[in-house]
Amino acid sequence: MKQLLVFSVFALALLSCSGGNRQATSALQALELDSLLVVADKEVDKTVTVVGYVTHTCKHSGKKCFLTGESQKVTLRVEAGSEIGGFSSELVGSKLAVTGILREHRLSQEYIDKREDDVKQLQGQEGNAEACAAELSNISDMRKWMEDHDRDYFVIYYMDGLKYEKLD
After folding, report:
1. For the whole model, what pTM was predicted?
2. Residue 150 has what DSSP assignment?
3. Which CATH superfamily is domain 2-108+152-166 in?
4. Cα torsion for 52, 54, 60, 62, to the nearest 10°?
């Protein structure tokens, strides 16, 4: 799981940040984020409700927010859709129950290899050492996760949000 969090931060930077109504949902049958990620591979393309804390909302459009679980070791990107017009910045720090469709984005071995080569090329440039070291560590964690799970790709889970309820 630690590898998933570490890479999630890296991957979120690669995958982008693109307005805000709030819609209520029932927190019944909701899974804490940490628990959801344990069974996420069985829940892909299904509607689920997850509970987590908002760590960030996209400032320009509010179309994305990021949730963390109690452990604060993993994050999940939630994209506004359906009844959600957007996520306001006032939600940062709030506990939400978000209902949506769980999705996965797979990063191929080839993509990871190319990203590693790109990072190594930047590594020697002034001012890049710390960031490059962190990215190379993330890539190493991805490779370890792939090996541990006998896969030739790394998975990033995210959610197409349908509605949410503020719990605190």
Report:
1. 0.76
2. T
3. Nucleic acid-binding proteins (2.40.50.140)
4. 40
